[in-house]
Amino acid sequence: MPLLTLLDEFLDYLVVERGLSPNTLESYSRDLHKYIDYLKKQGIDDIRDSSSSHILVFISILTGKGLSAKTIARNLAAVRMFYRFLVNENYLQGNPAAKIDSPKTWIRLPNTISLDEVERLLDQPDTNTPLGMRDSAMLELLYATGMRVSELISISLNHINLEVGYLIALGKGSKERILPIGDQAVTKVREYLASSRKRLLKNSRSSALFVNRSGNPISRQGFWKVIKKYSLKAGIQKNITPHTLRHSFATHLLERGADLRSVQSMLGHVDISTTQIYTHVTRERLKKLHSKLHPRA
Q1: Burial level of 49, CB count in 10 A (0-12/13-18/19+)?
Q2: Active site residue 228
Q3: Which of 18-22, 23-27, 89-93 shows the lowest per-residue confidence on average (mean pLDDT)?
Q4: Rounded to an integer, what distance in angstroms lies between the CA atom of residue 295 and that of residue 297?
Q5: Who's near 218: CB < 8 A, 6+ residues apart?
Q6: Is 213 in the active site?
Q7: CA 145/CA 138 separation, integer angstroms
Q8: Domains of the chain in sequence order
């Protein structure tokens, strides 16, 4: 069977069986197209003719291009899962990628901003305008919940309950989780719903909570521009992205005593190891507590 046909079957499997998000699916597709292009250049048209040696050479080519260890590890993970699928579907007898180790990756601490910088950022929107009121509600809600930007822009009206103070976030793999909102975010969203959203919608209708000036759901790019604009206005020198507020949310919770499992749940991490990038925060907090409270510190 042609290599690209096998790849299409694998991508269909990821959508139907695994329920992966469009962004994750695009990443797998991009990485595996690179691998298949490499195999074709080696004269391989039948996946059964590929071997661990081909995978190792492919990894060395990526390394030679100066790609980061993290990017190379992601490519290898895609190749490994592709072969695993082919074995499960009886196209192959064994997985040639199974025993190939991923390159060691340095743990990069997430980019965060201080509480003072968060306050300055949240103060920037002009709430006398419909767009400013919407932007204020979005920024407040993002910091209050630690959602991914894709989850924020996907919130529908029936997924938020302001009376009780919670919302339902639709995370990776279409998994739902319930998140507390907090009083300040509730107030901002109430104000936005009371007037601004109706003015942005004009005569149109939408189930999306946050809409643009045309009445359509706001896009990732649209919100990216929003946060860039206000970070510049706030005079924050750091490179701020929507993910920066997510990281800041987690860091500030841990600094104030939240446990790692609770933060894992709120962030929507399936594996606690993903949340453990924040353990430097808990270590620092424990050091301070020890210095303050231990009788011989």
Answers
A1: exposed
A2: no
A3: 18-22
A4: 6
A5: 134, 138, 153, 208, 210, 211, 212
A6: no
A7: 11
A8: 3-88 (1.10.150), 115-289 (1.10.443.10)
What pLDDT digit, counting tens, does each position of 27-37 carry?
999 999 999 99
From 148, 188, 197, 252, the catalytic residue: 148
134 flagged as catalytic: no
Instruction: Sort 142 into a burial class: Cβ within 10 Å, 0-12 / 13-18 / 19+.
Output: buried
3-state secondary structure of 147: coil
Looking at the whole model, is its pTM more than 0.70?
no
Of the residues 33, 159, 172, 177, only one is catalytic, namely: 172
Catalytic residue at 285? no
Of 54, 74, 197, 246, catalytic: 246
pLDDT at 295 > cutoff 90: no
What per-residue confidence (pLDDT) applies to 281? 57
**Catalytic residue at 177?**
no
Pair 177, 168: CB distance under 8 Å? yes
**Dist. CA 154–CA 176, nearest whole Å:** 12
Cα separation, 275 vs 269, in Å, equals 7
Interhelix angle 220-233/130-145, nearest 10 degrees = 90
Q: Tell me, what amino acid is at 142?
A: L
pLDDT of residue 251: 86
User: Cβ(31)–Cβ(80) under 8 Å?
Assistant: no
- Given a cut of 70, is residue 279 above it in pLDDT? no
Reply yes or no on whether 256 is catalytic: no
Which listed residue (199, 243, 280, 285) is catalytic?
Answer: 243
